[in-house]
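Can't attach files on this board, so I'm pasting raw text. These are the components:
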Amino acid sequence: MFNFISLVFKYIFIIIIYLFIFSIIRLIYLDIRSMDVSAIDGDAYLKLINRIDKLPYKIKEHYPIDGELTLGRHSDNDILIKDPFVSKKHFQIVEDEGDYYLEDLNSANGTFLNGERIEDVAKLSNGDIIKVGNIEFLFVNRE
Amino acid sequence: MLKNDISNRSPRNLLFLFEILSLSLVFLYDWGSVDRATYITAIGLVIIIYLSNFILNKISKGDSYIFLIVTMLVSIGVIMVYRIDSQLGMKQLLWLSLGILIFYLTYFVLKFIRGWKNWIPLYLGLSYLLFFLTFLLGKRKYGAINWITIGGHSFQPAEITKILLIFIIAAYYSNPEKFSKYKYAPYYIMGIVYSFIALLFLQRDLGTALIFYAIFLAIQFIYEDRRILILYNIILFAAGGILGYVVFDHVKIRVLTWIDPWSYIDNKGYQITQSLFAIASGGFFGTGLGLGHPEFIPLSYTDFIFSAICEEMGLFTGIGVIMLFMILVYRGFKIALNQTHKFYRILALGVSILFGIQSIIILGGVLKVLPLTGITLPFVSYGGTSILSSFIALGILQVASEDIDTREEAE
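---
Top answer:
Structure tokens for the assembled complex are below.
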């Protein structure tokens, strides 16, 4: 009896192990496809902190800041987020003489810099965390 | 959202299914002699692993695959160990529970304590202390003095020194401005690593010496500015290897039994030939758990676990194990590439190299592709210290996969 079960199980084990490997490789493949390597060329960029596979809408992992960057629900923004908590034009980041400034565009739910809601304009420094709705970005500036 | 959740859940459920099926089969094999403590530990461990894979996703924003891959390897390993020797299997279950605990401990300690890169003297002191203890209290086991027994528990200090070595090298290469004022700094670090390797050589722990060499050489190759040093290192490595072959008998035996184990089948080559017989008799699908004879291979529960897996669970499972190691190491390198904090980047790199090189050395050894050196297959083999140090290394990798706040370290 045991011999028979063992003989059947060995095929089941191999099938399970390979299904496991396959599903992990598929997840890794999805992970790699969402990576945008070209984005890291610039000096300053926003990096998504949330895990990309947990968010229900399309979003990239890196957004380079090339002079100006806007975020909002409307489709002419650089970062388009289809989230009800995000206003049509939510915030923008502007470069001025090498420094970067974060400006809230009178959004309904506000923009948070390192946990504090910003009033109008705030200066960004490397490692700052920008939060909009449930989404968090890390500001990276490599000069 | 729902679809994404399903895709993330599927490997976790497959793992759960595999553990339940294999445990019930193993308990059926051992029917009657299994006591209640074993049942409780085994079922407890399955639940811990399932929940850990779930919780880790919530508390850590880092990589969610490495722990999943490792728990699969661990499951295959513990079933094989239990089937070979149920008492060792029971101990292994306990070690694994402790290992997962240590994993979480490492994760939180490394994450919430800052300044790891400034404590080179501490790592150095600890390493030399461990070596000293090994020589003082060490016992010779299978030709190498690398075991200490304290209060009935034996443990292998070199497993911990491996982790310390990665910390030393990472701390050195991530503080270039601190060390550049010493003209001979790279020579000092080389001297330290060579002193470790020499001590390991004296203990006749050749496999671990090889791992130390590989980790140092790989990180030096990536980060050293004085490229000539890498050449020196490779020359010294070759010279050391040839010298070891000529001077030490035990090195010569390893090489001879690697080239032709069949002439020494009655003593020195016995392990390798038995390992090859076992793999061959398993075929593609194996004999089935409990139906083979892995007990014919000496040490089939530690160094030769891979041959035992190939015999009873088939070559396909063996290939699966190798693939799991490959994705684990690949994830490790990807973590290192994504990490912006240099110290954690080198740590991730060191740990990935450690997993990679250790599995290559022992898998090559049992398959007669490389000369055999007795080290464990990480996460799969039986062995308390080996399991613990592997889980510490995994904890380091998990921390390194997150975004480290660089502002505090700027000083």
